[in-house]
């Protein structure tokens, strides 16, 4: 999979993309992530990418020209399965969407800032709009990093234990059961006996029961 991210703050991705699972996936060449600074595509001598909103009002708006030039420069080099704009009014991101997107070959993700991007970009160039939840962040960088992380961990070979993404919460409409590690007794806080029994079938049953119980208690409408 290849992911191209268009942003005015490429440095914001340095932390999340240079550690842990994403770092390893890049090293194993299972994903290629390219960051593009939208300011490199402006023809303005001050490298401005925003301007005042028509009609007045608070906040600035990202201009059509640099964004259009950036998107078209990338589109000229390869075909994209989707050109995604991160936006609070987009389709809400969830695990089924992550699963579907994780089989795509190449994605472009546009991060907005200020009051957002000029609507004409959305009308003419964006193929999909995705929100990470009903709250407003200052930019699309953190949402783009969230989506990238959720997708990359689903690419076969990225997680050491191939089955581990499948046993995560939401994959089967259930939350994960509780997990424990050593010691079995920490100052009197004990691990459930069943997990120490070595009885695989009973452990699997217990985990399933716990997942069902937890889902009923915390997220009763999850599989609706
Ligand atoms: N005025 C806009 C919010 C702009 S926030 C509105 O009310 O809808 C600035 C940028 O942050 C957006 O362009 C978008 O790219 C990003 N952003 C903020 N919240 C987001 C969310 N919940 N999901 C995805 N992107 C978000």
Secondary-structure-based class equals alpha/beta
Helix content: 25-40%
What is the helix tally?
7
Q: Give unreliable regions as ranges.
A: none
The beta-strand count equals: 9
Net shape: elongated
> What name goes with the CATH superfamily of the largest domain?
SPOUT methyltransferase, trefoil knot domain
CATH topology name of the largest domain, in short, is Alpha/beta knot
User: What is the level-2 CATH architecture name of the largest domain?
Assistant: 3-Layer(aba) Sandwich
CATH class of the largest domain: Alpha Beta
> Approximately how much beta-strand content do the residues carry?
15-25%
- How many domains, as an integer? 2
Overview of this structure, please?
By secondary structure, this protein is an alpha/beta fold. The protein folds into 2 domains: 2-152, SPOUT methyltransferase, trefoil knot domain (Alpha/beta knot, 3-Layer(aba) Sandwich); 169-218, tRNA(m1g37)methyltransferase, domain 2 (Trp Operon Repressor, Chain A). 30% of the residues lie in helices and 18% in strands. The chain is built from 7 helices and 9 strands. It has helices at residues 14-17, 20-27, 64-75, 95-101, 119-124, 141-152, 200-218, and strands at residues 2-7, 32-37, 50-51, 61-62, 82-92, 106-110, 128-131, 185-186, 189-190. It has a 5-stranded parallel sheet with strand order 2-1-6-5-7. A two-stranded antiparallel sheet has the order 3-4. Helix 4 links the parallel strand 5 (82-92) and strand 6. The mean pLDDT is 96. Bound molecules: S-adenosyl-L-homocysteine (SAH). S-adenosyl-L-homocysteine (SAH) binds at residues 86-89, 111-113, 115-116, 131-133, 135-137, 139-140, 143.
